[in-house]
Write a structure and sequence with these properties.
The complex is a heterodimer of chains A (488) and B (98).
Chain A: H1 8-16, H2 22-35, E1 42-45, H3 47-62, E2 73-77, H4 104-111, E3 115-120, H5 160-167, E4 174-178, H6 184-190, E5 193-196, E6 216-221, H7 224-234, E7 264-268, H8 278-293, E8 297-301, H9 309-324, H10 342-353, H11 356-369, H12 374-395, E9 401-405, H13 421-425, H14 432-437, E10 441-448, E11 454-461, H15 466-480
Parallel strand pairs in A: 2-3, 7-8, 7-9
Antiparallel strand pairs in A: 1-3, 4-6, 5-6, 5-10, 9-11, 10-11
Helix pairs in contact in A: 2-3, 9-11, 9-12
Chain B: H1 3-12, H2 20-37, E1 86-87, E2 90-91
Antiparallel strand pairs in B: 1-2
The chains are: A alpha/beta (488), B mainly alpha (98).
Chain lengths: 488, 98
């Protein structure tokens, strides 16, 4: 047996029964990180820290004092501040930033006994859908097309490093953040499970802010059960985040009963977009049939404002980003350009420190918030946002969850879709509405396209009802029997 | 979108533009994005309240208390840890007043 073949749950059981030690497990994963270094999944690796934590974990297990993730090697998106470990947001402007505090989500994982392997690569400030905007280089997907070509594919973004690391089994799970699809789209591209919970479920405290009313932390894992275990450990009320909501955290794994009989699954007709590849159309139908076979009832629903989600998003997200990123001024932390006058120093610092996509969004955000345009763009987008949320509320009067494709295509080659920003933005067409409405969604790997690349299906739940998502996700996963791996 | 607006917005955003090539490119891409979001105008939003936050019903305030210790994580020493330049417990910036 190779210990890297075990799932997170199996690993946890093996650790508990002392069949393996966290130290040997951690060393195996550190070795795998070395073998797959060319994927560039990590910005900062922390092997020494991991070994130290693994020894403590073994000690805790020996003394019957094990936390829920005791000794489990995980990776953290480099958007979560980690105490005394460099946190860059994949931006040169934070290239030397070492936080003096730990984000709530990573703190919770550490308190559960997790072993920290390192900080994963991402799109700069989480702005991107291909992990090609990182100031620390592209992430390469561990997947290849089945045509024998050795073309390098994108892992998706923005949480591309976390997704690639889990898909190549460089860790047993990883954190991500999702502002418009940044967990679900890379999960789909990499053939793994990714869930964005309800807005307010995981604390945003200590996560580098992109768009505060849309950002939400979540997790990646190889399978639905492991994702449930990780999400439970990451969730919970936090007084330090004023948008964190004080609701109990359920045992998500326990919700995976396998029984969806009588459950109503909504199929939103507006998600049948023009030019959808037939592979995705067919997979969606397959997913519907799987749930029907399992005893669920399929209901047609309408989300009439769906086509306005992306335009609303590309006003709201840049507006909030331009405001949030005003803090990078070269004064208190991060990069400072050498200039004699203050204003020159600000302008040069930001011009040198930010990459192209980040500048693009700051410019758009500044424009839509500027005098004379605020009502026409920003307020209008927020009104449409309410209509989008209302659409979901109306649909959920008729059903318990929705089933849609996760992405409009499979993974594409590095360099594709770079000629026009809008082309890249369209990647999030099926995911972005959930962020606007604050709803939970999960991408579950469900099949392969004609090139042998993974495709995910998205399950959308009511606010605070991730349990139904996990229940449906477990049934889909069983039916799909997605066993193809991107690693050896 | 014209070049004067791009220059003005870049100034407001404190972003130095590298030259004519960048001004031209940003004008073009901002025009593209703005015409993409323009379709929102066809939505009837009369009487619809703006939604700023998905949980806007449950906004919460904290007590107005000083917190300069471990819990707040912003003790005066640690706040200078990542300063590009500091002196005697202060951030140092380029000279503002002659």
């Amino acid at each position: 047996m190779n210990i890297a073949d075990l799932t997170l749950e199996e690993t946890r059981n093996a650790l508990k029964k002392k069949e393996i030690s966290s130290l040997e497990l951690t060393q195996e994963y550190i070795g795998r990180m070395e073998t797959y270094k060319h994927l560039n999944a990590f910005i900062t690796e922390t092997p020494e820290l991991a070994v130290e934590q693994a020894k403590i974990a073994d000690h805790n297990i020996a003394n019957d004092n094990a936390g829920k993730l005791e000794g489990i090697p995980l990776a953290v998106k480099d958007l979560f501040c980690t105490k005394n470990i460099r946190t860059t947001a994949a931006s040169k402007i934070l290239g030397n930033f070492i936080p003096t505090y730990e984000s709530t989500v990573s703190q919770k994982l550490l308190e559960s006994g997790a072993v920290m392997l390192g900080k994963t690569n991402l799109d700069e400030f989480a702005m991107g859908s291909a992990n090609t905007t990182s100031g620390f280089g592209n992430v390469i997907s561990p997947w290849k097309k089945n045509d024998g070509s050795n073309q390098e594919l994108v892992p998706g973004g923005s949480s591309g490093g976390s997704a690639a690391a889990v898909a190549a089994k460089l860790c047993l799970g990883a954190t991500g953040t999702d502002t418009g699809g940044s967990i679900r789209q890379p999960a789909s591209f990499c053939g793994i499970v990714g869930i964005k919970p309800t807005y307010g479920r995981c604390s945003r405290w200590g996560i580098v802010a992109f768009s505060s009313s849309l950002d939400q932390a979540g997790v990646f894992a190889e399978n639905v059960k492991d994702a449930a275990i990780l999400l439970e450990a990451s969730s919970g009320y936090d007084p330090k985040d004023s948008t964190s909501v004080n609701v109990p955290v359920p045992d998500f794994a326990a919700a995976m009963t396998g029984d969806v009989r009588g459950m109503k699954i909504g199929i939103p007709k507006e998600y049948r977009v023009d030019n959808m590849p037939s592979d995705i159309e067919n997979l969606w139908q397959q997913g519907i049939d799987w749930l029907k076979d399992a005893g669920a009832e399929i209901v047609d629903v309408s989300l009439p404002h769906t086509k306005y989600a992306l335009p609303a998003y590309y006003i709201i997200a840049p507006a909030e980003a331009s405001s949030n990123l005003a803090r990078y001024d070269g004064v208190r932390y991060g990069l400072r350009a050498d200039e004699d006058a203050l204003l020159d120093m600000y302008e040069k610092t930001r011009a040198e420190g930010f990459g192209d996509e980040v500048k693009r969004r700051i410019m758009i955000g500044t424009y839509v918030l500027s005098a004379g345009y605020y009502d026409a763009y920003y307020i209008k987008a927020q009104q449409v946002r309410r209509l989008i949320r209302q659409d979901f509320m109306t649909a959920f009067e008729k059903c318990d969850a929705l089933l849609t494709p996760a992405t409009p295509s499979a993974a594409f080659a590095i360099g594709e879709n770079e000629d026009d920003p809008i082309k890249m933005y369209l990647n999030d067409v099926f995911t972005v509405s959930l962020n606007l409405a604050g709803l939970p969604g999960m991408s579950v790997p469900a099949g392969l396209d004609e090139n042998g690349l993974p495709l995910g299906l998205q399950i959308i739940g009511k606010a605070w009802d991730e349990e139904t998502i996990f229940k449906v996700g477990g049934v889909l996963e069983n039916a799909a029997d997605f066993t193809k791996k991107a690693y050896k | 979108m014209d070049r004067e607006t791009v220059i003005k917005i870049a100034r407001l955003a404190r972003l130095r533009l590298s030259g004519e090539e960048e001004i031209e490119r940003r004008t073009k891409e901002m025009s593209g994005i703005l015409s993409f979001v323009e379709q929102l105008q066809e939505v009837d939003t009369a009487g619809v309240a703006p939604l700023a936050n998905p949980n806007d019903e449950v906004q919460r305030l904290r007590e107005d208390e000083t917190d300069d210790g471990e819990t707040g994580n912003f003790g005066s020493v640690r706040i200078l840890t990542n300063a590009p330049e500091e002196n005697s417990g202060y951030f140092v910036v380029p000279k503002i007043i002659e």
